[in-house]
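Weekly structure sync, notes
Attendees: PL (lead), two postdocs, one rotation student
Agenda item 3: pending single-chain targets
PL asked that the sequence for the first pending target be pasted directly into the notes so everyone works from the same version. It is reproduced below exactly as submitted, 87 residues in total.
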Amino acid sequence: MSWGRLTHPRDLVNVGDQIQVKVLKYDKEKQRVSLGFKQLTPESVGSTPSTAYPVGAHVSGRVISVTDYGAFVELEQGSKAWFTSAK
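Predicted structure, written out during the meeting:
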C-alpha cells in the first residue's frame, strides 16, 4: 500500500474512500483480483539519493532504530539512511 511503513492501512485509507489502483494479477481459477495502490504513487527520493541528498547537505530525519554500531534514520517516508557511531 505504501513505499514506506504503515502501522495500519487506516493510516492511508478509510472505508468509503475512492482510490485509484492498478490490477496486478487476476487468478481466474480462484476468482481473485490482486490490486496495487503504491504502484500508482511516486516512489520516494530514496531511489535517487545522490540528487535528493547531496554530499555535505544538512538534513533532518527521525531515528527509527538504534544498534550498538549505529542508527537508521528515516529522512522521509520510504527513504531511510544509516549512519555509524563514531568511536
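Discussion points:
- The helical segments are 49-52.
- The longest strand covers residues 70-76.
Action: rotation student to compare against the earlier draft before next sync.
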